[in-house]
Amino acid sequence: MRARPERGAGTIGTATGLLVFMLLMFTAVQILFNLYATSLVTTAAYDAAREVAGFRSVDDRCGATTAADTAFVEQLGDYGRAGYARLEWVCADPDTVRVRVTASHPSVLPRLLVGLLSLSELDRTIEVRVERLR
Q: Where are the domains of the chain?
């Protein structure tokens, strides 16, 4: 009885292991990128809201949102100029400045995994109180 050679028998196992390893690495990169992008976008939106809250009247604040949008996009650089993040202002309340920031992060993962892990969307509302001198 002659033994069969086992050359090439580990190819499938090695390829599967490499695929799983690469998916885990891409997931780690995606999570780190999303944490960084979320922090950057939230900080830029907070800075824009704080800048608008510095105006005295509601009309001045509503007019200042255009300049704050421009500053927001400039602070984000290429990420902002590419249109990944947007601001929506609410100018109704005289005591607070409210801005909703939405961002759609680019992904290195397949769409199916990004959808399952919910890593691609950011939706936050930032409120800054208007300070008045007494």
A: 11-129
Provide the whole-model pTM. Answer: 0.78
pLDDT tens for the chain, 134 residues: list them: 666 666 666 788 889 999 999 988 988 888 888 889 899 999 999 999 999 888 878 788 888 889 999 999 999 999 889 989 999 998 888 888 999 999 988 877 777 776 666 677 889 999 998 877 66
Residue 44 contacts residue 72 (beta carbons within 8 Å): yes
Sorted by sequence, the CB contacts under 8 Å of residue 113 that are 6+ apart come out as 23, 27
* Phi, psi (rounded to 5 degrees) for 98: -120, 130
CA 15/CA 23 separation, integer angstroms: 12
- Runs of H (alpha helix) within 11-110: 11-53, 58-76, 78-81
